[in-house]
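quick q for whoever's on today - can somebody do inverse folding on this one?? i tried earlier but teh output was garbage lol. tokens:
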């Protein structure tokens, strides 16, 4: 019976200490936060395809529908961990910033000599460099693609989004939706 009193005393002491600590140092509220895992790209193809979120999280639980128009990453199998790393993570960050109006035209991406490159379905290559200012670089790409004076090109260099450069004349622009 003596051990029971000692155990009860210890439990009451821990509760009291926790209460005092919360009153003195715990003014912060705990609020739930829901993080959405919207797929932005796929690894693999067919029934083995696995979706990936914009932050690099591998969504192994997310069923990729047949005929999905999500862009493909240049990996055949997903990484062993729960998140992508390195150059493929840079690619996913760029793909995650794609404006909704341009998503149907994005075919895939790869990491080339200049960094992240995104291929459009028309064959035009968008050269991003890295994923910094990805949304701004996408706006610059959209402005170039919407320019009526530009009818054919091979690539758009977006390393400096304020000064996007175009080159080549081998591919026509994607149709305006």
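ok took a stab at it. sequence:
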């Amino acid at each position: 019976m003596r051990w029971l009193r000692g155990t009860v005393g210890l439990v009451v002491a821990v509760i009291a200490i926790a209460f005092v600590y919360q009153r003195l140092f715990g003014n912060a509220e705990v609020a739930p936060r829901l993080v959405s895992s919207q797929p932005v790209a796929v690894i693999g193809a067919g029934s083995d395809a696995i979706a990936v979120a914009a932050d690099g999280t591998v969504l192994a639980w997310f069923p990729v529908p047949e005929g999905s128009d999500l862009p493909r990453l240049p990996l055949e199998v997903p990484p062993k961990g729960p998140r992508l790393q390195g150059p493929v993570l840079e690619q996913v960050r760029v793909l995650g910033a794609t404006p909704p109006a341009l998503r149907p035209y994005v075919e895939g991406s790869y990491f080339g000599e200049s960094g992240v490159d995104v291929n459009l379905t028309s064959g035009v290559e968008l050269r991003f460099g890295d994923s910094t200012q990805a949304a701004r670089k996408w706006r610059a790409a959209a402005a170039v693609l919407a320019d009526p004076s530009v009818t054919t090109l091979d690539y758009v260099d977006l390393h400096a989004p304020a000064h996007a450069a175009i080159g080549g004349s081998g591919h026509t622009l994607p149709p305006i939706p």
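fwiw Helices lie at 2-25, 86-96, 134-146. also The first helix runs from residue 2 to 25. so keep that in mind when u check it
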